[in-house]
Design brief:
CATH superfamily of the largest domain: Aldolase class I
Distance between the termini: 86 Å
CATH architecture of the largest domain: Alpha-Beta Barrel
Shape: globular
Strand order of the largest sheet: 7-14-13-12-11-10-9-8
Low-confidence stretches: 1-25, 36-40, 327-337
Helix content: 40-55%
CATH class of the largest domain: Alpha Beta
Order of helices and strands: EEEEEEHEEHHHEHEHEHEHHEHEHHHH
Strand content: 5-15%
């Protein structure tokens, strides 16, 4: 490029649909050593025509998105989502629902129930129809995700660590018979003291565990000390509890609140952030999963956490919001484009003031739960046990109809 008749040392060639930076080559010289100006045509580099990522795509670059597996229409072979979960509520929704998307999973349940009468079936090794149904559906989900399939263990065993360990070993063996490798399996244990102790044993055997029903820092730290692979926090349920109990101080580290004034402090979101920072600092093996998320704002605030469990409604909302991340029409440099900003990063954790806890005992665990976690753990267990009893009854009805 010539400016004022002189060759510039570094020139920016800009044309329509092109943005290319060229460094000039050394000037050519004649036989007498004089410089010869050589004019070359600028080479146009076509744009990539890359479209911008929507918020869901941008978010998925920061956190692994786990769909609510009740939305079975999104879980089909080839979908290759991050992870999935099978539980009593999952199977119950299949048996009582009428969606066409449920049909393949209903067939899987029926096949698992019938396997109890077929000695040649790989599922014939257990007499428990519930175990067969859970594992057969879980094996189907393994074909739909790139990561692990989580199997939620019978909550009726929540306070018996030996029974929890035994049940997980049985299910892991059944998954192996269906060619689901150990590194694709993870088992969800309740956030009770017994659940934490079961995680100690199982993780030592190379069986991955999730501790769920986590409503307090004490539960999360205990799970990390046990070596749990994942800690799952139910953000929305914690928020709901504080809304129903306005007299309880939301922020124990902040100024005293007027119970009549709405607080912007969300204990559920803050628990995720605190456990994320604690884990990154002292237990990097353990990943943090945020579930029970109710709105787009909360989801974006937790961008960067290891896992986000999102219902179909929120996934659609995020898909409908565009960003300019990755956008390139040839006129705009992609370097300056922005997407969802991470709220949780290793740098954030390193700068936090979290302090390492001493090893917890059962007594210190119980005393550290707090009112919210105590009540939420009790009520969640009651509801989960009720769901499990209803599922067992439905399975027995289905078995009776087959004979």
């Amino acid at each position: 490029m010539l400016l004022n008749g002189k060759l510039q040392g570094r020139a920016l060639v800009k044309q329509r649909n092109a943005s290319v930076l060229h460094a000039p080559k050394p000037a050519a010289r004649g036989a007498n050593g004089q410089r010869i100006l050589v004019v070359r045509q600028a080479v146009e580099v076509p744009p990539s025509r890359a479209t911008a990522a929507n918020e869901l795509e941008s978010l998925s670059r920061l956190s692994s998105i786990v769909p609510d597996t009740l939305a079975f229409e999104t879980l089909v072979p080839g979908a290759k989502l991050a992870a999935a979960s099978v539980s009593a509520s999952t199977l119950r929704s299949v048996l009582v629902g009428e969606s066409l998307g449920h049909k393949p999973y209903e067939n899987a349940i029926n096949a698992a129930l019938a396997a109890g009468r077929t000695a040649s079936s790989p599922l014939a090794g257990t007499s428990d129809p519930l175990d067969r149904a859970m594992v057969n559906v879980g094996a189907m989900l393994a074909d739909c995700v790139t990561g692990r399939v989580e199997t939620v263990i019978d909550p009726r065993l929540a306070n018996d660590d030996a029974a929890l360990v035994s049940k997980v070993r049985e299910l892991a063996d059944l998954y192996g018979r269906l060619n689901v490798p150990r590194n694709r399996q993870v088992f969800a244990l309740p956030g009770t003291w017994a659940g934490t102790q079961a995680a100690w044993v199982l993780e030592a055997e190379g069986i991955a565990t999730t501790i769920y029903m986590v409503y307090s820092l004490t539960q999360g730290v205990a799970a990390m000390q046990a070596g749990a692979s994942v800690v799952r926090i139910a953000v929305g349920r914690i928020h709901d509890w504080y809304d129903k109990n306005p007299g309880v101080i939301r922020n124990p580290h902040g100024p005293r609140e007027d119970s009549g004034t709405p607080s912007s402090y969300d204990p559920g979101l803050e628990l995720v952030k605190e456990l994320y920072c604690y884990g990154r600092r002292f237990h990097p093996k353990t990943k943090i999963m945020a579930s029970s998320l109710r709105n787009r704002k909360d989801v974006l605030e937790l961008a960067g956490v290891d896992y986000l469990v999102l219902p179909g409604r929120l996934m659609k909302q995020l898909e409908q919001v565009s960003t300019d991340q990755g956008y390139n029409d040839g006129l705009h440099a992609a370097e300056g484009s922005t997407g969802v900003e991470p709220g949780l990063t290793t740098a954030v954790a390193s700068a936090s003031d979290v302090q390492k806890w001493q090893p917890l005992t059962e007594d210190s665990w119980r005393s550290g739960l707090g009112l919210a976690a105590t009540q939420l753990l009790e009520s969640t267990l009651q509801q989960r046990c009720k769901d499990m009893n209803e599922l067992v009854a439905l399975l027995q009805e289905r078995i009776s109809s087959m004979t």
